[in-house]
Specification:
8 helices, globular
């Protein structure tokens, strides 16, 4: 948290205020987590989708809740549409004869950031993503490009699993 960084550099007169602010934010986070859990328990559909998402190695409670809250379209869109919606689809920057680099942009930043962290875990522990990442690196792709491709693949897998209402990760 930024407040913890400020605490180490703040003068002694301000430190008590910062500590109180940190405690208040932690209480608020706990309250929000409890609210999320109570809402999840009330909705069977949410629970089922949460179970499906968490069955994938690399997706935990936080990423699952983030995807369900910020990406309600999960399971209803095509591979290209969901990748574009999250902002992990490469967009060309061409004009006339100029061929620019393909980059990702736009989309739902919060989901993309959460997916980034989940993909880092998946690259180490999920055999499907791990193999895909290794193959991309072996083909000479830069690490960041390979990571974004893995993010897209993980998102597409999650989308298909929600669409088909199936837990466990099938080879893709």
């Amino acid at each position: 948290m930024a407040e913890k960084n400020r605490l180490t550099r703040a003068s002694s007169q301000v430190q008590s205020d910062i500590k109180a602010h940190i405690e208040e934010m932690q209480k608020r986070i706990e309250t929000l987590n409890e609210q999320i859990q109570s809402l999840a328990q009330r909705q069977r559909d949410w629970q089922r989708k949460d179970e499906i998402l968490q069955s994938v190695t690399g997706i935990g409670k936080v990423t699952s809740a983030l995807c369900l809250a910020e990406l309600p379209e999960l399971g209803t869109l095509s591979e290209k549409q969901i990748a574009r919606l999250v902002g992990v689809a490469p967009i060309n920057h061409d004009s006339g004869k100029h061929k620019g680099k393909r980059m990702i942009s736009g989309g739902r930043t919060s989901v993309r950031c959460g997916l980034y962290m989940a993909t880092l875990v998946a690259i180490r522990h999920n055999p499907v993503i791990q193999t895909f990442y290794a193959r991309l690196l072996a083909n000479g792709k830069p690490k960041k490009v390979a990571l974004v491709a893995c993010m897209r693949k993980l998102l597409v897998i999650l989308n298909a699993m929600i669409r088909d209402n199936k837990t466990g990760q099938a080879p893709a």
